[in-house]
Every structure is written in C-alpha cells, then in structure tokens.
Write a structure and sequence with these properties.
The structure holds two protein chains of two kinds.
Chain A (H helix, E strand, L loop, with lengths): L1 H8 L3 H20 L11 E3 L2 E3 L1 H8 L1 H17 L6 H17 L5 E2 L9 H25 L4 H19 L5 E3 L2 H4 L4 E2 L2 E2 H19 L2 H10 L1 H6 L4 H26 L2 E2 L8 H11 L11 H20 L7 H16 L1 H23 L1
Parallel strand pairs in A: 3-4
Antiparallel strand pairs in A: 1-2, 4-7, 5-6
Helix pairs in contact in A: 2-14, 3-14, 4-9, 4-10, 4-12, 4-13, 4-14, 5-6, 5-7, 5-12, 6-7, 6-12, 10-12, 13-14, 14-15
Chain B lengths: L4 E12 L2 E12 L3 E5 L6 H8 L7 E6 L11 H6 L2 E4 L11 H6 L13 H14 L15 H14 L4 E5 L7 H16 L3 E5 L3 H7 L2 E6 L2 E7 L5 H9 L22 E10 L3 E9 L3 E5 L6 H9 L6 E6 L2 E3 L4 H6 L2 E4 L3 H5 L6 H13 L7 H14 L16 H13 L5 E5 L7 H16 L3 E5 L3 H7 L2 E6 L2 E6 L5 H9 L6
Helix pairs in contact in B: 5-6, 12-13, 12-14
Classes of the chains: A mainly alpha, B alpha/beta.
C-alpha cells in the first residue's frame, strides 16, 4: 500500500500512467478482434528496417517531441506559449528546399541539380529557426509583449513567407540524401534518432549547467531573479531561441519525410500538439517548475492516441473528436481538485477500514 | 454561546507535511473588542486564521459563529464571508487596475434592470461608504493611484461593508508608516464602537498596547493563553511568546562600536539619481560600518539603496567601489563588485516560491559564478545545510519549497542567499519586517558581527529603536532626497528631529 502511494506521488506518475492506459486500450482492442494481445507491441524486421506500431508511434511523434522540448522551456520561463512553431517549421522547410533547389525550381531529382550543397540548406533552415526564435524572444523578453500576441505574428506570417520563398510552388527534392532525415538510418527510423539526440543534448545541458534552475527561477519570480543576479530578459530570450531552433529541426524532419516543402501542410496545427504535450507532461502552463521528460512522454502519448484511432479504423476526419475526449480525461485526472477528491476518498476508505478492523 | 461572543473556535488541529501546525487550539472573539493574536513566526497565527476563513481544511475541532446553530464549515473565503468572517491580509488582495468603487463592490455589483452594472449607484454607495469610514479618496480613481495604506483601508472597507461580525486583520500595519497606522487605528476603534470583533495580528508590540483589549498567545502551534491586556505587560507577553524571559531592549552593540571616519572607503557615490524616485545624492560608506537609512515611508530610503545596487539603474552620477570606478547597469554587475541586496518586499522580490530552500539559498552564488559553472549538488547541499544550521531556519527539509516556510524563516533563507555570496557591502532593506522578536535580535546581532568582520552594511528599517541599536551612522532622507547624515551619539530625539526636518543639526 505504502509503496503504491509512493509510486503515485512521483512526478512522472501521471504522464506515464496515461501512456500505459493508451497502450492497454490497444491491447484490449487487439484481443477483442481476435489478434494476439501483443500485436501492438510486435516489432518486425522487414528489408532490414524495423517495423511495427510502436516504432511507428515513436517515428511519427518525433516532430512533436522535438517541438515539446522548446515549448517546455518557453512555458517555464515566460508563463506563455510559442504558438508560431508550426508555421516556423513550415518556413524552415521551405527555406531549406529553396536554398537547395534554387529559387523558382519546383523539382530536383538528383544531387547534380542542387543549386547549393545540402548542408547549406540544412544549416540555413536551422539559422532561420533561430532567427524566428530570436524575433519571438525579442518581442517577449525585451519589449514585454504577451507571448501569445508576440508569437501570433509569426504564426500567421511565417507560413506565408515560406510560400513566397518557394514562389508559390511545392518544391520537391526527390534525392535520397535529403530523404534520409525522414527515412531510415540503418534499421532505425531517423526521426527517432534525431529526437533522441535533441532530448539527450538538452538534458545534458540542463544537468551540467545551471540553465534549468535559471529558467525555473525566472518563470516563478522574474523580479526576484533579477535582484538575485539573473538576467531575466536574456534567459527568456534564450528559451525562445531554443524553441525556434527546435522548430527548425522539426521542420527539416517533416520536410524530409515527404521529400518536399509543402508550405501549406508542414507543421499544420502542430503548435497545439506541442502545447498539449507540455500540459500532458504535468507541467503548469503558468510557468515555473518544469519536467522535460513529462513533456516528451506527453508528445508520444498524443501520437499513440492518433495511431490507436487509425488502428481502430476511426475515419481520420473524426479522429480529433476522440482525441479531444481522451485529452479531457487525461487532463481532468491531473487537475488539482480531482486529485484532492481522490486523496480524500482514499483517506475516507482507509478510515472506514480502520473502524471495521477495530469493531 | 454567550451573549456577546461573535466567534469561537474549539480544539482546532491541523498538520502540514512534517509539522503539527496547530494542536488543539481554542480561540474566542467577543463583540466590540480588538483581540491581538500573538506569537513568533511559525507559531500558527496565519494557520489559525486560514482555518477560520476556510482556506485551510483543519483536521479536528469546531468553529461557532454567533447567530448560527451548530458548527460552521467554511469551505472557502466566500463561505466565511457569508457567515460574517472577513479577512484583510498583509498583502492587499485587490485589483490595482480597477477603480476604488469597483474594488469595493467586485462580485456583488449593484445591477440595473437590464442586468448591467449600475455604475452610478455603485459609485454613490462607494462614496458613502468611504465617507462614513473617513477615508479620503475619489472612488472613481484606479486603486493603484493610492498609497498602500489607503489600499489597505479600502480592503477593510470592503470587508466591513459585507456585514462582517468578525474582521481579521493579518499584519495590516507592516507596510504603513506611523501616521498611516494612526489612521488605521482610528478606523479600527470606530468599527469596534459598532460592535465588530476584530482579530489583529501584528509583530509590533507597541501597537498591541495602543489598541487591543485582549491578547491570545500561540507558541509552536499550541495555545499559551488568553489574557486581558492589562494583565499582560510587555515583558510578560514577550516571555509568553518565546517561552522564556527576554529583554528586547538590551544593548547588543559591543564597546567601541562607533563611527570610524578613518576606515578605508568601500562605497563612494557621487550624484547618483534615478528619475522619479531618488534625487542626486552623495554618500560615502566605510569598511566595517553599519549605515542606517532613515526617513518616512516613501522618502526614498529603498530607492537610494536600489540606485547603488543597480536594481533601478542610476541615471546620473558616478560610483566607486573600494576605490575603483564602477559601472553598475544591473544587479549582477553590483554582485560582481561584492554587493548584495535583501529587498524589502520579500514575496515580490525575494523568494522564488516554488523552488526549494536549497535552491533559494544558492541562487545568488550560482548567478555570480555564471551559468556554465554549476555548483555541484553536494556543494549546494553543504552550503544550504550550513546556513540552515547557522541561521536556524525552521524547515522540514532543505528540499521543501520555500513558500511553505513561515515569513521569518523565508527571510532568513534570503539572508542566507546573500551571506553565501560573501559580500563586502550588504544592503538590508527592512530585514526584520514581519518577523518575531527573537529572530529580529538574531539578525541585528548578525549585522554587528558582519560589520566586525570588516564588511559594510546598509540597514534600512522603519523602527528607529532597531536602527539605534545597530547603526553607527545614519543618513536621513526626506521626499526622495538625502538631506543629511547623523553620527556620534545617536538618540531617538535627534533622529526624529532630522526626519521631521527643519531642526536638523547638520
């Protein structure tokens, strides 16, 4: 009993619990239609590549997971969200493809036709991400504009700028060197590797430097942090910069997946998934303390829900409805009043048991 | 229930993780009395009040209110207000960007037949209310245009207007100056005439004897006793609060602790100013000196200190630190020069509420070292433990979020934050505000000890006695300007005369 209690009080308990819940639903569904219960978890090797639903979730959820890293920091430091990340993804993808294919060229099918080396395109995309992040960060940190309003600018503008860069075309780069970022690296899907590397780098930075404490401190009390010697503005700026960089990385992955820069669809509504991932991870959107692992788990939970829906044959047009229901349940379970209610109930039960025992 | 009793609490118990906050506490409030609730930090005053007003969910005990049969169960402050218990907190819980009238009637606005807010009636009623209570304000102005004292009174007016039988004032005077306190007392006495029972929580002993009829003393979550004021003279009250006899007026200055004009200079400020808050001033501070800044509230005491520290960047003038010209654009610059500032508003500018005591203590030291030079966890724990032990910070553990500590212990943790940076020049702005006598004396002794080690201390306090006990020189401020300095024999009369102006002996 006390062990169970200890477990439920762990900070990561709820995000992990939600994840397991979604997986269990899959198992039950598989059983009910006469498949093996482990069908969901089955990982197969076809043509030297890993396959299976679990791999699929990890693969498809990578973009949101990468975005969630930046979003977690932004939420913590500024008590606000960066709603431009989806658009910035699209802009970065367009910029990358434009650099590589050359302006106005709509399709490239071999490396000889590259206007610029691929590396220039990739670095350009990352720099573009940083630039967007710096723009957002400048507005929020130095001009004190509310995060939602400040990032609304790029939310609407970035996608359009991307379209301009691509001369209103969908630029195709059907070259294996480009496709690898959304494809396979040996047997493992590359997006999983990229997401893992991003999480690892940020985790190490948070562990080995005081950045984590600085961000939380600024998010909890900006004024007091300044008096204690922190440069609150610079820290908030830095968080937005990192968030922009994450959007750039996610943009490259998304674009490489479809080997093209489809400005209108890359990263569409992904900012909402990223924010949701942060919330599902048990992080307060009011800023302050954060838990990066929770956000990452949250991101994959969202993807798991989506995959489950497809698995069950729910038409993709109505998937959002079911997703919403699941999200309501998950968020409600984490809400303080509900938690308090559960706590009270279990206390009452314990009391009743005691009375029975003594009677 | 007796005729003249408005509120009784019987056998209230409550536990916080790791601490028994209240243990079987009784409390009785009678009609038309001002009842002081006294105790050191962490004695359980705030916890008891929160139980009465429904913020805390106590484990056992009953609350009875006059006119209501059976025990009252308040689930939140609205419930408490319904049964006639209103509270005004130390920090004003009103909306500064709304008008006075809106603040008075928020949540219960008079309505027109079209279900919109009837502003005319609201303003009229608000105006009548403030006139009745003798508060001089224009009710259509935004609340932020008025001083903290007026805001406090507005908060009380709001409480009173909601037909309260029991009014709880939690440290209402801690941010007011003397004349404002007097106004507040007048208002309290007026309410008392009307039969309102007032619970008054304060750390100022004089104030208890100025207005209160009865005193209830708590210590470590238990009830020490309830006494009529006449039966509990000051010394006995302090003894009851601390559980031992204590002479709070004893001198703590060692022999020969006087101003030494020959000591080398630590800080030389020339013509520093910050627009709108402090006019240009010159100030020299020597090593090993405790310089007091005195003046009325709002005279520019804090602002002078903030200009030196870079909390409000000085726009004119020059600063020399230890003989070298220094440029201070922001607090971190000042910290690198060996300064530290303990701000007066602990909640807004001191604590990082959700972070642990450990993180709060090492924060400034870490900021000084820079982001990439992180203190190891072991080192952090060692520093935190050392100061928790040294300053006797009462906390369940070093990983407890600092917001769960009582005010005085929070203050000690912030003090520890600065001591950990080993500053040469430490500015303490109201370090003893809202904390108990025992801790006060400890902090005063610490200040003198630091000065003895050759550090310079700037000490700001509203309590002149406290300044007289610790400072060896004082700078006097009036209306946002430094108007003089006092050294030699410091007496209450001299300081008062200097503050009041005119007869300054400069």
């Amino acid at each position: 009993m006390s062990n169970l209690k200890k477990l439920t009080q762990k900070r990561l308990f709820l995000p992990v619990f939600c994840m397991i819940l979604v997986l269990c639903i899959n198992m039950i569904y598989d059983l009910s239609i006469g498949h093996h219960f482990y069908n969901f978890f089955e990982i197969t090797m076809t043509n030297g590549m890993l396959n299976g639903r679990l791999i699929n979730i990890l693969n498809r959820g990578s973009e949101v997971a990468i975005l969630a890293i930046g979003m977690t920091l932004v939420v913590s430091a500024s008590a606000g969200t960066d709603i431009s990340v989806g658009s910035v993804m699209s802009l970065c993808a367009s910029f990358c493809c434009m650099l590589v294919a050359g302006f106005g060229v709509s399709s490239v099918s071999s490396a000889e036709e590259f206007a610029m080396p691929l590396a220039v395109g990739l670095i350009g995309a990352l720099l573009m991400g940083c630039l967007c992040g710096a723009f957002n960060g400048g507005l929020v940190a130095y001009l004190n504009i509310q995060p939602m309003v400040a990032t609304l600018i790029l939310w609407s503008a970035a996608r359009a700028i991307g379209l301009l860069l691509c001369n209103n075309l969908i630029v195709y780069i059907r070259v294996p060197e480009f496709g690898v970022f959304g494809g396979y690296l040996g047997p493992i899907p590359t997006p999983i590797v990229i997401a893992a590397v991003c999480v690892a780098i940020v985790s190490v930075v948070l562990k080995k430097t005081a950045l984590g404490m600085y961000i939380q401190s600024v998010g909890i009390n900006k004024k007091a942090s300044r008096i204690a010697g922190l440069n609150s503005q610079r820290i908030i700026f830095l968080c937005y910069l990192i968030c922009g960089l994450c959007a750039g990385i996610a943009g490259i992955v998304a674009s490489s997946r479809i080997t093209s820069a489809d400005s209108n669809n890359i990263g569409l509504d992904l900012e909402l998934d990223a924010i949701l991932a942060v919330a599902l991870g048990g992080n307060s959107l009011g800023g302050g303390k954060f838990n990066l692992a929770g956000s990452i788990i949250g991101a994959y939970t969202i993807q798991a829900i989506t995959t489950t829906m497809y698995n069950m044959g729910v038409p993709s047009a109505v998937t959002p409805v079911f997703k919403a229901v699941v999200v309501i349940v998950i968020v409600a379970v984490q809400a303080p009043p509900v938690k308090a209610w559960f706590k009270k109930r279990s206390a009452a039960k314990a009391l009743a048991k005691k009375e029975v025992a003594s009677a | 229930m007796e005729e003249n009793i408005v509120l009784t609490a019987r056998g209230i118990s409550m536990t916080f993780p790791g601490v028994k906050a209240l243990d079987n506490v009784d409390f009785t409030l009678r009609k038309g009395e001002i009842h002081a609730l006294m105790g050191e930090n962490g004695a359980g005053k705030s916890t008891l009040i929160k139980c009465l007003t429904g913020i805390n969910d106590f484990e056992s005990g009953e609350i009875h209110v006059a006119g209501i049969d059976g025990p009252v169960k308040n689930r939140n402050t609205q419930d408490a207000q319904k049964v006639g218990i209103s509270t005004v907190y130390q920090e004003v819980n009103l909306c500064p960007n709304l008008s006075v009238a809106e603040n008075l009637y928020i949540g219960r606005e008079p309505m027109t037949p079209w279900r919109t807010i009837d502003r005319r009636t609201m303003n009229k009623k608000a105006d009548e209310l403030v006139k009745r209570l003798d508060i001089k304000v224009d009710v259509t102005q935004n609340l932020e245009n008025y001083s903290l004292a007026i805001q406090q009174m507005i908060a009380i007016a709001r409480a009173v207007d909601m037909d309260c039988k029991a009014l709880i004032l939690d440290e209402p005077t801690s941010s007011l100056d003397d004349s404002e306190v007097e106004k507040l007392f007048k208002m309290m006495l007026q309410l008392k005439e009307h039969g309102v029972g007032i619970v008054f929580v304060t750390h100022f002993l004089e104030q208890v004897y100025a207005v209160c009829d009865r005193i209830t003393v708590l210590r470590n979550g238990t009830l020490v006793g309830e006494y009529p004021v006449a039966e509990l003279p000051r010394v006995k009250l302090v003894a009851a609060m601390m559980g031992k006899d204590f002479d709070d007026l004893a001198s703590i200055k060692p022999e020969g602790f006087t101003f030494d004009a020959e000591a080398p200079l630590e800080i030389e400020a020339k013509g520093l100013s910050h627009k709108g808050t402090i006019k240009p001033f010159d100030l020299d501070i020597h090593k090993g000196e405790v310089i007091g800044l005195t003046g009325l509230l709002g005279s520019g005491r804090s602002e002078l200190a903030r200009a030196i520290y870079g909390a409000d960047k000085a726009q004119t003038g020059t600063l020399k630190v230890a003989g070298k010209a220094a440029k201070v654009n922001q607090p971190i610059d000042a910290m690198q020069l060996g300064m530290g500032l303990l701000p007066d508003d602990r909640k807004a500018e001191g604590i990082i509420g959700d972070l642990s005591v450990r993180e709060n203590i090492i924060l400034a030291l870490q900021a000084k070292r820079g982001m990439f030079n992180q203190l190891s966890r072991a080192k952090q724990e060692e520093i935190a433990d050392r100061y928790i032990d040294l300053l006797q910070i009462k906390t369940a553990s070093r990983e407890t979020p600092i917001k769960q500590l009582s005010g005085g212990n929070q203050q000690k943790a912030i003090l520890a934050r600065w001591l950990a940076t080993d500053p040469n020049f430490l500015i303490l702005d109201e370090p003893t505000r809202g904390i108990d006598i025992g801790t006060k004396t400890e902090i005063q002794k610490l200040i003198i000890q630091l000065a003895g080690e050759g550090k310079s201390i700037m000490f700001i306090s509203s309590e002149i006695e406290e300044m007289l006990r610790t400072c060896n020189r004082m700078a006097v401020l009036r209306d946002g300007a430094k108007v003089g300095e006092l050294d030699g024999e410091l007496t209450q009369e001299r300081v008062m005369a200097a503050i009041a102006g005119g007869a300054s002996d400069e």
